[in-house]
Structures are given as structure tokens and as C-alpha cells.
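Rotation project, supervised by the postdoc (A.L.). Task for the rotation student: set up a whole-complex structure prediction and record inputs and outputs verbatim in this book. Inputs entered:
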Amino acid sequence: MKRTLISLADGRDLIYYDESDDSDRSAVDKRDLPPPPPASEIRYDPVLDEWVAVAAHRQERTFLPPQNECPLCPSRPGHLTEIPADSYHVAVFENRFPSFSDRLTGEIADADGILAGARHGFGRCEVVCFTADHDSTFGALTPSRVRTVMEAWADRTADLSALPGVEQVFCFENRGEEIGVTLHHPHGQIYAYPFITPRTRRMLGSARRHAEDAGGNLFADLLAAERSVGDRVVVSNEHWTGYVPRAARWPFEVHIFPHRRVPDLPALTDAERDAFGPLYLDLLRRLDGLFGTPMPYIAAWHQAPVRADRDLAYLHLQLFSIRRAPGKLKYLAGSESAMGVFVNDLRPEDAARMLRESGS
Amino acid sequence: MKRTLISLADGRDLIYYDESDDSDRSAVDKRDLPPPPPASEIRYDPVLDEWVAVAAHRQERTFLPPQNECPLCPSRPGHLTEIPADSYHVAVFENRFPSFSDRLTGEIADADGILAGARHGFGRCEVVCFTADHDSTFGALTPSRVRTVMEAWADRTADLSALPGVEQVFCFENRGEEIGVTLHHPHGQIYAYPFITPRTRRMLGSARRHAEDAGGNLFADLLAAERSVGDRVVVSNEHWTGYVPRAARWPFEVHIFPHRRVPDLPALTDAERDAFGPLYLDLLRRLDGLFGTPMPYIAAWHQAPVRADRDLAYLHLQLFSIRRAPGKLKYLAGSESAMGVFVNDLRPEDAARMLRESGS
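Outputs recorded:
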């Protein structure tokens, strides 16, 4: 794999990940771009003990452009995009409308007393283009392309983890307008956060209590129990198993774990990386096969924080869809959004069975 | 106010709250209904240390019926609804498709070891009809009707709090198809949970730490600070203040507190109840006036748990909308749904100013 770093017209980084060494990556970004927006602000919420990002400039981000204005397609005469080359395999670049950024300009006005707690939203937000083919999907990639995407995720995780203020790196894909996607071109994102995220904090708190009480690793023990019971397992091979958690929150939710506990994507072996693509592509085909319509989904890599509790964490991919039936979505309404109580309309065992039988 | 309890054809409770004593509430539910579904199941998630409800029967719930089949309209010849009377002021009844129920039938199969933790989803789910007028909205109610709704909320909170296994009562309104509402008739809901909800646990944990560290009540100190700073205050009167929190998660989010700390709705005085309606109606008008289109929103009453930490809690209404601009919604995508990190595209100070200037 060949890695080429270039600068876009406004100074943002772009990295090509090429499957062959003969690609020409000399194309220059000729656009006339304004400077990137300043970093967002993060504010501390003393009620929920969490940081919230305020990124007002994101109101202006590109919203469902027509295909001939897609900013993620390769550049062509008359249409210059975020990617100067006329083709690419996988390309990663800094988001033009980032929620977190290391371009710290301007002052952040903090407050006094109980309202204190405001600082620059330091970090990075990157876009990962999976293919130059605008009309493709992640599920339609070849296993070797998924392998290239994994290399990009692992490489970016390692690079972003080395930034001084970054505490956690999150690789994910949002798919489908129903879930808020504003660009149709197949792509994912990477967020490098300046704090450990709320969900990760809670997961690691549970893992710490479990280690103290039971002596084992929470995630490893759950994976072993699910593999032993078996009725919620959807896919598995030599290195990975995907199962619907017994207390799944979403109508279709699958957690995919490598059989060997590793903290993050860079720690995966070549054999583990090779084995992921076929299993995940099989799962995505089953998901889209459920109702004969492309499923909106979120695919979220849970990685260990950069410098805390790496011995408790266990890399896994959380894949979930908000579609509960043809034409019906699961919404986060009062109980979920205001109280944090999820009501799942589908039994996890039924969801697992439907996924196992899908496309068979 | 006159309160009349009747039984629906399948044994569910219905309560009329009437603004005059002369209403005839003798109408009988003549429908031929199947028995209510069994209670859901709640399952413990050891990773996030939370209970999740699994209510498979809810897949079949009524979904966006045409107006002439609305189950919340008064009954009329040829169309028998959930409400036998031919008119009503406010009516509350047990949800036919409840997430939680006290009709415990069937066995719940628990598991062993790390997968253990499953029991009946004991509790109650009720529907609150705000008006017999199908085409109205909460914001179009009169202040005296809002007062009647408050009486119903307080009465139901007291009653449901007395059920032996209920730990928290949650009164709320989901408004708008964009937020998942499946019935257009103006209505809210009440959930009586068999546990303290995750968000409430976190809020009370913060309040406990604040009381130990600073000596005061977290919510009272925040309210005082926001009233003192003032630039995020949207509405206020003698008894109530509504402000946009400094670390708001949603584009438009207002927290409304009574000036006197009370644990829950039943603890409000008559004067406090009288003062709420005009202030809240003003706020809803401002919200709908922002973009000249009805705003989808969730309105959530945060009440103290039934028997824990009532000295730390502080009743308040959390009102928030997912609309961030005309034609654009805020979605909970990867960062919010998988990591719990909210990114707000609107500065809370700007949201407060927009609401203050709305309709002026």
C-alpha cells in the first residue's frame, strides 16, 4: 500500500491510500478556498458531567448536493472537488466543516463559578472516502478494498493518537439520509476527541468493576458467553464474531469482536485484518437483505482511549440500524432522548434469527 | 375539577379530568377488544449498566392512522375510540401498546452468569389527551386547559408513585412526525418506570457531588447563575424561568424551572401551577415562530425518583427541538448515538436570542 500526503488549497491535509505503487498523486488543488473555520468550542455540562461541542460554522456545511457537485468525487475539468486526483482508491482528508480542529484561533470566553468550563474544541475531524465510485456503497466494496480502508483507519488512529491533546479516536460510518447523512458518496469519518467520550467512560467503568468483582475482562467474558449460548450470534469466522447483544437498544444491532483482545485497530494482526472484510461484507449484505431496501445504519469502532484504561478496553465494531420495519424507523423520542431509557420493539433473538436467515 | 375513573372494554383504566362538574361520563366502551398485551421484558446491559426494555408487541401499534380513524378523538356513532364519551376536556388512559405494564403474565427466561438480568417490564404507560380537538396543538390550548393538564400530570404522578414497584414517573410530550409521533391528535404520555432512569441517575450523581463540594443544590445554583448572567434566559415570570443551558445539546433547548425547589409536580402550589401555563404557551409560540413552521419537539418533565434522592432533585421541564434550520433537522449520528458526544450547530446564546426575538 502506498501512502501519499498532500495539502489542499486551504492547508488541510489529504492522504491517498493506494493499492498499487504506480498511481500519480501529483495533482494540485487549484481551488480558491477561504481559510478553514476556527476550532469549535467545547462546554462542560455540570448536570450530566459531560463536554458538549458547539460548532456554529457547521450550520453552513454542504447539504445533499446534486451528484454533479459532489465534493467527494475525483476532480475533473470544470468540477474541482476535495480530491485533486482524477481517481483514487481510498482518500482521507480533514473535514472542511469540522466539529473538532487543531486550528486554534480566537479567544474562548469562559465563565465563572458553576458555569465555568469552556475551551477550544481541540481535535481533528477527517473524512474517509471508501471509493471513487459515487454510486457505490461500503457493502459493495471488494474484500481487498475493505482491507485498504482498515489500513487507513489504523494509520489515522495511530497518527491522531500521537497529537498531544487527543484522548480518543473514533472511526465510523453514517449511512443513509434517514440517519442524517448529507453527502451520498460512500464515505466515513474519523473524530479525534480532546476527552474520553461519555459512552466509553461508562463502558470502562463497568469493565473496571467487572475486573474487580469477577477477575476477567467484561467484553471477553460477554463474547465467550454469547458464543457459548449461540442464539444471538449472526456471523463468525476464525478471527471475528458478530452477535446481537442480549440487551440491544436498536432494532438491528450487531457487535463484532475480534477473538483476541486488542485495544484498537493498529493492534490487529494482518490475519485479523484480512478476516474482517469478508465477515463484515456478509453482515452488511444480510442487513440490506432484510427488507429488500438499503438500510440506514451507523457503524462505530469502539477503540481504547489513547492513554487511559487500555488494559480494560476491547476493540469492537458496533453496527446498528434505526429501521425497525419496512417504512418504519425507530425514533429516539421522550424515553430515549430525555431519560436514556431505550425501548426496543424487536427481540434481540428475533433480530439475530432474521439476520441469519437474510439472503439465505 | 372533576375526576372520573372508568374501565375500558379490555379492563384498562381511563380517567376524565373535567373542568366542570356537569359532564356526563356514563358512556360505556362497547368495543370488542382483545386482552391487553403482556408486560414487556427489561434486560440488564452490563456494558452500560442500564436496563433496556424489549416490547415486541409494540411493532403492531397504530401507525399514522387517517383522521377519521383517530383513536384519541371522542367516540361517535360508527367510530368507537379509546374514549367512550362524545367529548372531553382532558382524558388519560392506559396505553394499549405499553412499553411498561403491571399486567404480568408469562415467564421471563433469565440467563446465567454475565448474561443474567431479565425481568418483567413492570410499570405503566399512559396516554394524556390534551383536548378533544383533533387539529389543535398544546401551544393552542388556553391557559386554563394547561392548568387542567397540570392537574392530570400531578394526579397521575401521585397515583403511579404509589404503585409498589414504580421508582420514577415521567410526563412528556412528543410532538411532530419528525420525532416519531405516530398519532397526530394532541397528546402526551406518562411512563412509570420500575427503575431510576439513566439520565436521572447521572443528574442526581452530579447533584450529590455538588452538594458535597459546594454545599448547595446543583440545579438551584445553576438557575441562579443563569438568571444572574441573563443572556440565555428566554422567558420568566414570578414563579418560573426558562433558559437555554450553556452546554445545550440540541439546537433549541430550554429548561424551565420553578423558582422554588420542589421534587415533583404534586409539590407545586396553586400559584405556581397557575403561573406555568402562560409562560409555557408563550415559549411554545416563540418556538413555532422561529421558522414559520410547526417545530417538532420533546417536552420532558424531570421529576424526583419516588423514594430516592428527593432532597437532591429539582423539578424542571426540558423542552427541545431537533429542527436546526428550515428544512434541516439535527440527527443523532455516530458521535451522539455511539459515543454520547453531542455537537450543537447553534450557539446557545444565539438560540436564546432567536427565541427572545421570535414573534416580537
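Student's summary: Chain A touches chain B through 84 residues (CB under 8 Å).
Supervisor addendum: Residues 2-195 of chain A form a domain with the HIT family, subunit A fold (CATH 3.30.428.10).
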